[in-house]
Amino acid sequence: MRYAHPGTEGAIVNFKERYGNYIGGEFVAPVKGQYFTNTSPVNGKPIAEFPRSTAEDIDKALSLVLLKIADRIEANLEVLAITETWDNGKAIRETLNADIPLAADHFRYFAGVLRAQEGSAAEIDGNTVAYHI
Known about the structure:
alpha+beta; two-stranded antiparallel sheet; flat; oxidoreductase; Ald_DH_N
């Protein structure tokens, strides 16, 4: 049996010309807009362009994952609070109103921190430098 080349009549497989990063349930362009061409060893022709992703793309994806975790925690607040109470013996009022909501807040906080990564350095004297990451 002979298979038709992708993109030709009768082909079982077809490719788009360009793909994006799959982030947050959709394909999006890479942050820096860079792509690489994947070439087929069968005929030496381009298959498609794919994102040349960078740390910024990873941070974007990770931020969305952390936000999704926070959403899931909030959607299951009562079950998680009761489970936490049975697991550690804390009063339900603490797990329901503090522990579990704060866990969701922490995920949201760190999702934002990824986007606002910053640091600084300062020369204290001729022999000392302080830096913050």
